[in-house]
Write a structure and sequence with these properties.
It is a single chain. By secondary structure, this protein is mainly alpha-helical. It has a single domain (20-221), classed as Up-down Bundle (Fumarate Reductase Cytochrome B subunit). It contains eight helices and two strands, in the order H-E-H-H-H-H-H-H-H-E. The chain starts with a helix and ends with a strand. Mean pLDDT is 87; it is low at 11-17 and 222-226.
Length: 226
């Protein structure tokens, strides 16, 4: 794509110097750690609930259900913490695509992931203090955290307390429909977790992004005129 080639040419025409930028504040790192633990535990406990004969990590079926329920409630609290923090601090802007991102930025970033990364091209959208995510990351977070996560959590709460929401559950087709919705979203999130872990290895080095989410500091490229 012409825009992708022009962007790479513009990057290569400048001398680049890796610098450390403070990208992830403490609250974001705490949230990310809790969120990651919750997602992993919920995926495993949920799998044991659906396939009790094949998975026994949490012991009995009832224990798996109890673990799933408690970590589900923790995930609800964790999500609300993330939402309130980002709204109050206005850091929510990092997760919202802008006019440059749609569609051109999405196409440029997709082309980088599909072929540019294997040619060792520089990242077309390196993280900055003002814009920490690339266009595809923004769109992914908007879809998963802005749309699918609320639906996943609400479906879980409805399933956990069906007597309190009996009329609504009946109106959408009953507990079986609710269970299918929850299960499909869980599968999507499990797939996203795998993709997320893979893409996390696409920093300057394989471990850079993992170190960044622990320390808060990330490498960026400071452009200087040659």
């Amino acid at each position: 794509m012409e825009e992708y080639d022009l962007l790479l040419e513009n990057v290569k025409e400048n001398k680049t110097m890796a610098e450390k930028i403070y990208l992830h504040p403490v609250l974001e790192r705490v949230w990310h750690a809790i969120h990651a633990i919750c997602i992993v535990v919920l995926i495993i406990s949920g799998a044991q609930i659906h396939w009790p004969g094949a998975i026994h990590l949490f012991g009995s079926f009832q224990t798996a259900v109890s673990v799933h329920n408690w970590f589900g409630l923790l995930l609800v609290a964790d999500f609300l913490l993330w939402l309130i923090y980002n709204l109050v601090s206005r850091r929510i802007i990092h997760y919202i695509p802008n006019k440059r991102d749609i569609p051109n930025g999405l196409i440029v970033q997709a082309k980088f992931y599909i072929c540019g990364i294997f040619k060792h091209d520089p990242h077309p959208y390196p993280p900055t203090v003002d814009e920490k995510f690339n266009p595809l990351q923004k769109m992914s977070y908007l879809m998963f955290m802005g749309l699918m996560m609320p639906i996943l959590l609400i479906s879980g709460i409805l399933y956990l307390y069906p007597l309190y929401f009996a009329d609504f559950i009946t109106s959408i087709g009953g507990l079986k429909v609710l269970a299918v919705i929850h299960f499909i979203l869980a599968i999507i999130f499990a797939a996203f977790l795998i993709a997320h872990l893979y893409l996390a290895t696409t920093g300057h080095t394989i471990q850079d992004n993992f170190i960044s989410i622990v320390t808060g500091y990330a490498d960026s490229e400071e452009e200087e005129e040659a």
